[in-house]
Amino acid sequence: MKNLRWLPAVAILVLAIANLLRVWSGEAPDRQDQVIATYVTVGLSLIALLLWWLLFSRLPGRIRALSLAVMVAIALIGVSTLRLREVTGDLIPVLEWRWASSDADSSAGGAAAGGAPAALADSPSFPQFLGPDRNATLPPANLARDWSTTPPAQLWRQPIGDGWSGFVIANGLAVTGERRGEEEWTSCYELATGTLRWAHKNPVRFEGGVMDGPGPRATPAIADGRVFALDASGQLDALDLATGELLWTRNIVTEHQAPLPVYGVSASPLLHEGLVIVLAGGAAGHSLVAYDQVTGEPRWMGGGDRAAYSSPLVATLAGREQIVVLNNVNLVGHDAADGSVLWQTPWDGSTERVSQPVVLPNDRLFASTGYGIGGKLYRIAQDAGGAMAAELIWESRRLKAKFTQVVHRDDTLYGLDDGTFVALDVESGERRWKRGRYGHGHVLLVGDLLLVQTEKGEVVMLVADPDQHRELGRFQAIEGKSWNTPALSGRHLLVRNANEAACYLLPAA
What is the pTM of this model? Predict the structure, then answer.
């Protein structure tokens, strides 16, 4: 070993460390790019070290041959015993043993029950994706601000099927979408107990991959005793809330000759004025489609953009009620009466559109995406002839909402900037503060409190303070990658991911 040539190895390590410091110093436009650059740096460095060891280290041939055999054996053992289960929102791999079960047990979730819900039939509703107003914002609730003395109480916690659908709540019942075996379920549970009331099953298995995983993506919606559920293949089902009976069904992808999005149909159905409005993504007037909630008959359709992963919402801008949606290439406003396009503006880049636009006072609209793009604030204006347009006020990379929803209170936007919490000034787009690495989770604004579900399944409570980051409490609600949106009914908080679901009673003030 005395003749070992160390200098090339030292040079490789120094260059690798220097490049990693460069990659991670300062603020990058996209954390995912930093992770990818780290993979490339580490990978190339390991290859260079291997070549040095085998060809230029001056070690005896017997030692080099033996060490190569050991490395190959370790690699073969790793490949044969481990597999890539998934990746996080930052593309960090999550490994599991190859013999671990990958499908949810179809018996999970408790036995089916009959009769009236055990309790909470008069609980406040959370009837659709991101709540009653579809903006992840709820009125003030009687919530304690100190979880250290009285922590949230777990009412139930149990396995659930795959998928990224969130819960919706009405009449003491909680409904979500999940994948069990070869079927996608729309499942109804009792809010108070977690007991399975009914499950409507479609013979669909959207597989996905390590980037996105299997199962349904869209969150159901509830109105007038009906559930409207959309699976990953585009099957739209209207179900009876009490029994799960199928009332009518359509397939929005095949009916409108739309391409299936790479990661499956993800935009949640919107309920408005007796209509269920869905993003089909078909061309030539078949992008946004409205069906009658009672009959399932088409009422109107409009636009020609392909679907992305953001969901439609209702807004009144420049005096016109409209359906706003961030599509594959444009941010668009459709007339709520007939689906015609009122205005549209292009959105940058070829990245995924997931986060919801945020409606702000004075006819303003904020939209954001991740992958280094960031946010833009628009004013929607109408000229004397009735033509509408989106006027850009400012744009900023300081709030890149990759999977999550941005919320608004007073003159501040709050959200996860590539996984780190940020407060942004509405008027200028300048950052007020950035702190709290919560990953690619989700946010609910309840009065002046922020409930953040982290990517690792924790729930964190913050004050919506424009001047500083103030964390009041946290607890581990569920385990594993948690990309599903939470739901809140009074003090009952529902959380889930692709592995388990839980209900917690938050302490009262």
Answer: 0.89
